[in-house]
């Protein structure tokens, strides 16, 4: 008796234990619906917990323009937890309201209603039968892709319009290149190069629906053999490459003459009296000084350094004295322009002494004033003329010896002299400079003085030397000393 | 100033005189104009209807995103074109025949002329909503395309009648003799629809029109791949 009681108690306990894990099913969830061709559709749901008991699911729907609630016509064709609506049960442009109910022995659970219109859920299958064909062409290969529309779509009656898209990638990279194909079922790719494996995929779209999945990948390998063909053309190309290289080397070796030939030098414009180098490199007061000096000062000849420019005539006198100091040497380059000057009379070059050394002045042709000013130039650099210093002539002995005052007239810049018109300028060559206040001038011949003054005080003279384009000579310091009539500043 | 004016006038004159002119299109083949084929006309009309649907679909989805970001709302709505009987699948559409299909298309298009322009008006006047400010242009565009589409369908029906493809019982000889679209809905129906409903319904109806036009083309002009 007690055993029976115990047995019964045990059974009850186990039954009680078992029954506590069972419950009504959980709420299923409708996931999505899809129509592959706008003629049928399928819906899927996700069941909730089954509560430990065998649970069945039922899908019910209501439809616009249709009275009543109906059950899913086909639970099987589309697999588990799905409902397939065939053509007879599918209507486009009407709303379906779906619900799924899970039920087991202990109860039911109904999902939330799911509203859909077939027009919105169109997603076709992927295109099939993708074939690749490589066409070997002369320049580069080309890849022809062909495919078939998904088998269930009806494009013939115009019910749906299909659009295609394909993507290509080379070898193992992750960069897909996408192309739109429209409604064609073939496409040609021209940007393929030999020696690679190309992977192609195609997908399609119906009307305004969603894109299908990408089709299965199709591979093709484009071989490299094109490179071995036509050895003759390769030989020709190699030879022409060698020729080009040689021509290039020759050109490089002779680049200067090539440059001369291709780009002949163009003479630059000259403004007399203005040194472009001075303008570029000098300070502003130098520029101003240059401009100011034109009006009132004896002409200052700037020496042109640029070898491409022509220059006003300058003669070279062999009798020039050489000075003790080297500082007074004025290196200068003269370029004779034979076209401008045609006079033959030699001319005395007006040149300024470079620094403050004084030479004796010899001038037996012109009246020599007792006090005159000797113009000096102080060269800061080799050629550029920057400042002019003046020293007063203290005494003139005989005809060619000048004694200058020891103290110089400081001029920061230029002193403007009042020049009396009509008094011709005259220049004498400096023969010798002794100490720092004695200048010995050259005795001149009358025949030498045949330069004429131009209006702007420049003297243009004919060539004295044979014509040479680039003549760089070193001048002695015996330049010319300007004789100025008694300045009013005295 | 006069020079500028002269230049402008010259340019205007040149523009007017040298406008690239293709031969004017006419339906009846009058002298000097280029008569498009039926295939061209269909092509044009289908493109237009496709564009119309596309824009309205965008507009609708934007509307829903803006006003109903959580898609919980399920409303049973009734479009004002509810009573225009339309085929709801492929077989029924193909069974319908050209004449009836054409009539359905015409009715659908006519039914939306006024509501769309009213939609545009109310959208452009409602300055409170940023959405309306932004998308009233789309409503205007849809309205314009619809207008052109109606004209296009008229031309096509005329041409089809001319070619004998369509019997003369259809449509436009006397537009009012056939049941006009306005018989299918009332103003009350329209008033009960808000912007959301209008957009939803128009999206659907434009898709219908596009589909029917394509079927009409493919049954009228048989091609291997329509």
TrEMBL record, chain A:
<feature type="domain" description="Fibronectin type-III">
    <location>
        <begin position="126"/>
        <end position="225"/>
    </location>
</feature>
<dbReference type="InterPro" id="IPR003961">
    <property type="entry name" value="FN3_dom"/>
</dbReference>
<protein>
    <recommendedName>
        <fullName>Prolactin receptor</fullName>
    </recommendedName>
</protein>
<keyword id="KW-0472">Membrane</keyword>
<comment type="similarity">
    <text>Belongs to the type I cytokine receptor family. Type 1 subfamily.</text>
</comment>
<dbReference type="InterPro" id="IPR013783">
    <property type="entry name" value="Ig-like_fold"/>
</dbReference>
<feature type="domain" description="Fibronectin type-III">
    <location>
        <begin position="24"/>
        <end position="125"/>
    </location>
</feature>
<dbReference type="GO" id="GO:0046872">
    <property type="term" value="F:metal ion binding"/>
</dbReference>
<dbReference type="Pfam" id="PF00041">
    <property type="entry name" value="fn3"/>
</dbReference>
<keyword id="KW-1133">Transmembrane helix</keyword>
<feature type="transmembrane region" description="Helical">
    <location>
        <begin position="232"/>
        <end position="253"/>
    </location>
</feature>
<keyword id="KW-0862">Zinc</keyword>
<dbReference type="InterPro" id="IPR036116">
    <property type="entry name" value="FN3_sf"/>
</dbReference>
<keyword id="KW-0479">Metal-binding</keyword>
<dbReference type="GO" id="GO:0009897">
    <property type="term" value="C:external side of plasma membrane"/>
</dbReference>
<dbReference type="InterPro" id="IPR015152">
    <property type="entry name" value="Growth/epo_recpt_lig-bind"/>
</dbReference>
<keyword id="KW-1015">Disulfide bond</keyword>
<keyword id="KW-0675">Receptor</keyword>
<keyword id="KW-0732">Signal</keyword>
<keyword id="KW-0677">Repeat</keyword>
<feature type="signal peptide">
    <location>
        <begin position="1"/>
        <end position="19"/>
    </location>
</feature>
<keyword id="KW-0325">Glycoprotein</keyword>
TrEMBL record, chain B:
<dbReference type="GO" id="GO:0046427">
    <property type="term" value="P:positive regulation of receptor signaling pathway via JAK-STAT"/>
</dbReference>
<keyword id="KW-0372">Hormone</keyword>
<dbReference type="GO" id="GO:0005179">
    <property type="term" value="F:hormone activity"/>
</dbReference>
<dbReference type="InterPro" id="IPR001400">
    <property type="entry name" value="Somatotropin/Prolactin"/>
</dbReference>
<feature type="signal peptide">
    <location>
        <begin position="1"/>
        <end position="22"/>
    </location>
</feature>
<keyword id="KW-0964">Secreted</keyword>
<dbReference type="InterPro" id="IPR018116">
    <property type="entry name" value="Somatotropin_CS"/>
</dbReference>
<dbReference type="Pfam" id="PF00103">
    <property type="entry name" value="Hormone_1"/>
</dbReference>
<dbReference type="GO" id="GO:0005615">
    <property type="term" value="C:extracellular space"/>
</dbReference>
<dbReference type="GO" id="GO:0031667">
    <property type="term" value="P:response to nutrient levels"/>
</dbReference>
<dbReference type="InterPro" id="IPR009079">
    <property type="entry name" value="4_helix_cytokine-like_core"/>
</dbReference>
<protein>
    <recommendedName>
        <fullName>Growth hormone</fullName>
    </recommendedName>
</protein>
<keyword id="KW-0732">Signal</keyword>
<comment type="similarity">
    <text>Belongs to the somatotropin/prolactin family.</text>
</comment>
<keyword id="KW-1015">Disulfide bond</keyword>
């Amino acid at each position: 008796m007690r055993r029976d009681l115990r047995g019964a108690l045990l059974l009850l306990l186990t039954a009680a234990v078992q029954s506590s894990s069972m419950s009504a099913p959980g709420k299923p969830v409708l996931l999505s619906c899809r129509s592959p061709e706008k003629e049928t559709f399928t819906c899927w749901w996700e069941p909730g917990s089954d509560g430990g008991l065998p649970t069945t699911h039922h899908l019910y729907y209501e439809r616009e323009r249709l009275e009543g609630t109906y059950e899913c016509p086909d639970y099987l064709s589309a697999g588990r937890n799905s409902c397939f609506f065939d053509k007879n049960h599918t209507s486009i442009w009407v709303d379906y309201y779906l619900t799924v109910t899970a039920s087991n022995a202990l109860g039911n659970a109904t999902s939330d209603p799911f509203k859909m219109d077939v027009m919105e859920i169109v997603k076709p299958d992927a295109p099939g039968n993708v074939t690749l064909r490589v066409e070997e062409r002369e320049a580069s290969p080309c890849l022809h892709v062909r495919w078939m529309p998904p088998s269930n779509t009806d494009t013939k009656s115009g019910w749906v319009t299909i659009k295609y898209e394909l993507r290509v990638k080379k070898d193992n990279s992750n960069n897909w290149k996408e192309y739109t194909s429209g409604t064609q079922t073939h496409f040609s790719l021209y940007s393929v190069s030999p020696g690679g494996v190309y992977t192609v995929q195609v997908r399609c779209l119906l009307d305004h629906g969603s894109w299908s999945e990408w089709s299965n990948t199709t591979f093709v390998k484009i071989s490299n053999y094109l490179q071995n063909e036509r050895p003759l053309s390769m030989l020709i190309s190699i030879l022409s490459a060698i020729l080009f290289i040689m021509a290039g080397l020759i050109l490089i070796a002779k680049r200067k003459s090539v440059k001369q030939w291709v780009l002949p030098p163009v003479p630059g414009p000259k403004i007399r009296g203005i040194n472009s180098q001075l303008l570029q490199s000098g300070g502003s007061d130098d520029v101003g000084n240059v401009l100011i000096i034109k009006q009132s000062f004896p002409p200052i000849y700037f020496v042109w350094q640029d070898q491409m420019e022509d220059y006003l005539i300058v003669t070279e006198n062999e009798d020039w004295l050489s000075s003790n100091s080297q500082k007074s040497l004025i290196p200068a380059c003269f370029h004779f322009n034979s076209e401008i000057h045609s006079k033959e009379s030699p001319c005395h070059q007006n040149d300024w002494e470079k620094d403050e050394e004084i030479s004796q002045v010899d001038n037996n042709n012109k009246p020599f004033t007792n006090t005159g000013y000797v113009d000096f130039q102080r060269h800061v650099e080799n050629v550029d003329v920057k400042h002019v210093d003046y020293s007063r002539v203290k005494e003139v002995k005989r005809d060619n010896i000048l004694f200058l005052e020891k103290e110089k007239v400081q001029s920061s810049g230029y002193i403007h002299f009042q020049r009396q018109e009509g008094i011709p300028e005259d220049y004498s060559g400096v023969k010798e400079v002794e100490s720092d206040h004695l200048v010995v001038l050259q005795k001149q011949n009358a025949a030498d003085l045949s330069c004429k003054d131009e209006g702007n005080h420049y003297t243009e003279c004919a060539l004295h030397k044979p014509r040479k384009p680039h003549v760089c000579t070193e001048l002695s310091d015996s330049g010319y000393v300007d004789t100025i009539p008694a300045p009013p500043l005295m | 100033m006069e020079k500028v004016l002269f230049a402008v006038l010259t340019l205007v004159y040149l523009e007017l005189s040298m406008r690239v002119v293709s031969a004017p299109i006419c339906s009846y083949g009058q002298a000097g104009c280029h008569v498009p084929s039926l295939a061209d006309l269909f092509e044009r009309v289908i493109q237009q209807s496709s564009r119309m649907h596309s824009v309205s679909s965008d507009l609708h989805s934007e509307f829903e995103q803006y006003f109903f970001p959580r898609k919980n709302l399920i409303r049973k709505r009734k479009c004002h074109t509810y009573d225009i009987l339309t085929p709801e699948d492929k077989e029924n559409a193909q069974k319908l025949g050209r004449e009836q299909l054409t009539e359905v298309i015409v009715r659908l298009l006519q039914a939306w002329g006024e509501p769309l322009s009213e939609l545009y008006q109310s959208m452009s006047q409602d300055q409170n909503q940023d959405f309306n400010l932004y998308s009233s242009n789309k409503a205007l565009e849809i309205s314009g395309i619809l207008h052109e589409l109606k004209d296009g369908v008229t031309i096509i029906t005329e041409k089809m009648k001319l070619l004998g493809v369509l019997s003369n019982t259809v449509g436009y000889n006397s537009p009012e003799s056939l049941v006009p679209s306005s018989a299918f809905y009332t103003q009350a129906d329209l008033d009960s629809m808000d912007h959301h409903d209008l957009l939803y319904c128009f999206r659907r109806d434009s898709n219908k029109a596009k589909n029917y036009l394509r079927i009409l083309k493919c049954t009228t002009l048989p091609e291997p791949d329509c």
